[in-house]
Design goal:
The protein has 389 residues and is an alpha+beta fold. Helix content is 38%, strand content 28%. The chain folds into 2 domains: 229 residues, 3-Layer(bba) Sandwich (FAD/NAD(P)-binding domain); 118 residues, D-Amino Acid Oxidase, subunit A, domain 2 (D-Amino Acid Oxidase, Chain A, domain 2, 2-Layer Sandwich). It is built from 12 helices and 20 strands. The strands form 4 sheets. An 8-stranded mixed beta sheet has the order 6-5-14-15-16-13-17-20. The two termini are 35 Å apart. The structure holds 8-demethyl-8-dimethylamino-flavin-adenine-dinucleotide and P-hydroxybenzoic acid. 8-demethyl-8-dimethylamino-flavin-adenine-dinucleotide binds next to α1, β13 and α9.
Length: 389
């Protein structure tokens, strides 16, 4: 088998790159280790920056999003029993789109199936070979048969646990990591949201986030300890804890219902530099992880993919390697902005176990400043809606 580009991973990064390359007439094979159903079953991101929506439009997959997604002009930040609105539209003239990652993935999968471009699901034992040479190749096992895919370039879009980043010699990578001493327990439920915009709530019992997927479906999170287990939380316990944290007025008017998904995610910040080794380019969670507090992970995956698509298009159209050579630097600049913002939002809104009193006062003072200062609110808004591509 041969293709110009081998894409490892059919998450949002791999599928979006596949679609953009297809539109540019560049052929790519996508190799995914799981089934399509498994990929669609992962409940993750919910907030898209305008830049991400523009890239989805460029890939030709924006139709359902435009008819079904909600746009939000702001978010609410709760602290010390009060809530303050950060009015994105008034502050920076932009909005965000609330549309689940599952839906983005579904739209991308359908578009790929419609154009008959090859995706191989349940590709096991994917291995990358000669990635620093001009002729890299990939092997994998599909339905018990070992296969070989020759290509010009490899796009490592296989997430944090994937094989792509691990195929780079350790000496060629610099890794930066921060592990936070808590996780998020998330619940998806078919009840109408009792909030118009997302609520990020700091409380004495820890952080809570009230989000949504539609007019009839909510996504809610509470900060939990790292050794917590989903089985330890009945739906009733989850809702009781969520209500204690989100604010009395919201708790009083909200409806709860059985969870249709419940999971715990650890929080980490992680960056691998550079995002390229020879003919292999990393994009999305394969290269970096941000804690979900800033809603940046999926948006960063989209911007990486956009830069890589531009670079590959330049190479095939004009035989220019300049954009490929600039890819890692260009992507990392945006990545670090989001890493900083997500770290800041996480530090601002979570109670750290054993938090020292000095840090507690600094955090309180930072929240106070945010609520009083237009400049501080504008800074949050500018980062949340997304810095320019
Ligand atoms: P993914 O989605 O992990 O997809 C990688 C794919 O690669 C496959 N794979 C392999 N395939 C072949 N061979 C191998 N050896 C392979 N190893 C792995 C995997 O099966 C998978 O299908 O990475 P990608 O495409 O880079 O996308 C990244 C996003 O999924 C991620 O950044 C976001 O979900 C993060 N995130 C959020 N991002 C936002 O922009 N806004 C949000 O509101 C937001 N909320 C969240 C989030 C992530 C969360 N969790 C659970 C980590 C909320 C949560 C709770
Ligand atoms: C979500 O809806 O899942 C969501 C929204 C905002 C975040 C994280 C997750 O910051």
């Amino acid at each position: 088998m041969r293709s110009q580009v081998a894409i490892i991973g059919a998450g949002p990064a791999g599928l979006l790159l596949g679609q953009l390359l297809y539109k540019a007439g560049i052929d790519a094979v996508i190799l995914e280790q799981r089934t399509p159903e498994y990929v669609l079953g992962r409940i993750r991101a919910g907030v898209l920056e305008q830049g991400t929506v523009d890239i989805l439009d460029l890939a030709g997959v924006g139709a359902r999003l435009h008819s079904q997604a909600m746009t939000h002009d702001g978010v609410e930040i709760g602290a010390s029993g009060h809530r303050h609105r950060i009015a994105f539209k008034d502050l920076v003239g932009k909005v965000v789109t609330v549309y689940g990652q599952t839906e983005v993935t579904r739209d991308l999968m359908e578009a790929r199936a419609a154009c008959d471009a090859p995706s191989i699901y349940e590709a096991e034992s994917v291995e990358l070979h000669d990635i620093s040479s001009a002729r890299p190749w990939v092997t994998f096992v599909h339905k018990g048969v070992k296969q070989r895919l020759d290509c010009d370039f490899i796009a490592g879009c296989d997430g944090y646990h994937g094989v792509s980043r691990r195929s780079i010699p350790a000496a060629a990578l610099s890794l930066f990591e921060r592990i936070y001493p808590f996780g998020w327990l998330g619940v998806l439920a078919d009840v109408p949201p009792a909030w118009d915009e997302l609520i990020y709530a700091d409380s004495e019992r820890g952080f809570a986030l009230a989000s949504m997927r539609s007019e009839t479906r909510v996504r809610c999170y509470v900060q939990c300890s790292l050794d917590d287990k989903v089985e330890h939380w009945s739906d009733e316990q989850f809702w009781a804890e969520f209500k204690r944290r989100v604010g009395e007025d919201v708790a009083a008017r909200m409806t709860t219902g059985p969870s249709i998904e419940k999971s715990i995610a650890p929080l980490r910040s992680f960056v691998a530099e550079p995002m390229r080794y020879g003919q292999m380019f990393l994009a999305g969670d394969a290269a970096h992880i941000v804690p979900p507090t800033g809603a940046k992970g999926l948006n960063l995956a989209a911007s990486d993919v956009f830069y890589l698509y531009e670079a590959l298009s330049d190479y095939y159209r004009r035989e220019s390697r300049a954009a490929l050579d600039q890819y890692s630097g260009r992507a990392l600049r945006r990545v670090w902005q989001a890493v900083r913002f997500s770290w800041w939002m996480t530090s601002l809104l979570h109670r750290f176990p054993g938090e020292d009193p000095f840090f507690g006062r600094i955090r309180g003072s930072e929240l106070d400043y945010l609520f009083r200062s237009d400049a501080a609110q504008r800074s949050l808004a500018e980062n949340y809606v997304g810095l320019p591509l």
